[in-house]
Amino acid sequence: xxxxxxxxxxxxxxxxxxxxxxxxxxxxxxxxxxxxxxxxxxxxxxxxxxxxxxxxxxxxxxxxxxxxxxxxxxxxxxxxxxxxxxxxxxxxxxxxxxxxxxxxxxxxxxxxxxxxxxxxxxxxxxxxxxxxxxxxxxxxxxxxxxxxxxxxxxxxxxxxxxxxxxxxxxxxxxxxxxxxxxxxxxxxxxxxxxxxxxxxxxxxxxxxxxxxxxxxxxxxxxxxxxxxxxxxxxxxxxxxxxxxxxxxxxxxxxxxxxxxxxxxxxxxxxxxxxxxxxxxxxxxxxxxxxxxxxxxxxxxxxxxxxxxxxxxxxxxxxxxxxxxxxxxxxxxxxxxxxxxxxxxxxxxxxxxxxxxxxxxxxxxxxxxxxxxxxxxxxxxxxxxxxxxxxxxxxxxxxxxxxxxxxxxxxxxxxxxxxxxxxxxxxxxxxxxxxxxxxxxxxxxxxxxxx
Length: 450
What we know:
- Helices cover 12% and strands 51% of the residues.
- It is mostly beta strands.
- Strand 2 (39-43) and strand 3 form a beta hairpin.
- It is elongated.
């Protein structure tokens, strides 16, 4: 039996060792840029706070590997790698001599895009509502908007879905008021303890007024522009013939020509008339998205601590800010009343399941490096997060506010290890008193950039 099993594994082992052999053949083309400034500084990480460890001299070239927000990972002619700021790379040229340009988007670019999406939160008849919306622009000032959301209140929870028109008065302004009008559906799930009420469905109509303000330069489009060299030719003017010069004028002109011949370089025999061809600019990959998982422990107030697992999705908008969507689940332990009361069970197993969803805004600060020994340095940084979400626990769904801090270490450009602590705060009256409850989480996780 062992001999037969070994024979079966041999083809699989050969296949696994053969796979890496095909990878170099699929190597993609990189963008080559030439430094025109006196020097180009390369940082150890994608941020202003990371130290400068390399300098590329004027005339040397770098290959652009990928982009992360406003920073580009490049490789020098000697094989060294570092991070260059977008503003510094604008002082470089392509192989044909045309300047390098990279458009990250502006307000006009934001207006030119026909699709728009986002997240809204607010008050909905005494309940807290969180909505996601998707809009399609029909004209510069009129768009069709779809909204889907969930509201959580003391008396009932429910879901809403709306479809309507949104009219922006002056879309060219940074701040512009708008009108909205539409119809939708509402699904309500009342809360009760003595009787079991039925869920209700309603058809709704809405009208409203609001305002929008353009804040960030969103990265909705990224384009490269290349140019070509132009050869300008100046032709002399034709004039009427002058009378022949005198002998003195001829001698003076000969002496001036001889003096100019000694100081000027010899004339070119052939004047090149070849126009430079355009350089094919390869696309620069962006790695602004993080996706990963975490494992840790959550201390649910009035319950014993329990292990928690979670997933997270981050999108880095700039060097400083990022958006995060996270979800997690834990199985709570017993309350202090259940522990002291013996066999008393206040919750069913399904009601003990603690499930949360969060939408947060993060801020990166204190960038630095972590050293392992003398030869290994990894980029790192602290960050703050805060946002809103919901928790399903104790047979009810509650609106939550989350805030916390974390520490990120990057062993490679595509892998990050996170140590994070957060507090999930929600209001509950399950134990007889309506009060805010704090639920502390501490987790260790890993994410992949792509």
